[in-house]
Amino acid sequence: MDASDEIADPPPWPSNDADLLREEGDWWTVACLDWPRDRWLGYINGYWKAAGAICDQIISSGRDQDQLVYPFVMCWRHYVELHLKTLIELARSYLDEPHVPLRTHRIDLLWQAARPLLERSFPGDDDSTLDDVDRVLSQLHSLDPTSEQFRYPVRNDGSATLDGIARIHVRNFHNVMLGIANLLDGADTGIREMIDTKNEIAEYYRDW
Q: What is the pTM of this model?
């Protein structure tokens, strides 16, 4: 009997023993939510990796791009929102500025708060790179100013989302966003290292 004659397993279906939190034998598929040093990093890196996995799937299969584009862009947008919020808090901590959470989903407002903090954290760096980030994040904000455009086909008032946007080249979008992610990730790593160094120096001189 060849593979075509084998009886395929039936598709999953609701059952009386279904349990979302049950663990089974394939331990390598168990996700641990309690290990990260900083839980924000789990969320940040998770959405970044999810966007990459979706892009890889589209490129390798050449299929489903018209459906996967929505979670793909949503993952990238949410990644940026989370990482900007984290960078704002990290930079304020490093600069000894008060922590004032920005309770907004707007990418433009988050970047307006993050950019001057990054400039003060890394004085002397080339601001033209931040200008490039500014341009791309402004475009991302225009695509989805309220974090709803790629989650719903209509707004609360019944009007269609994504008005006037007919095409997105997934691979190009992904490569542009990778550039943004690499800069944000580098800034994140740099500020964390500077905070650690600052704390070590403070600890060293504490008893003097």
A: 0.90
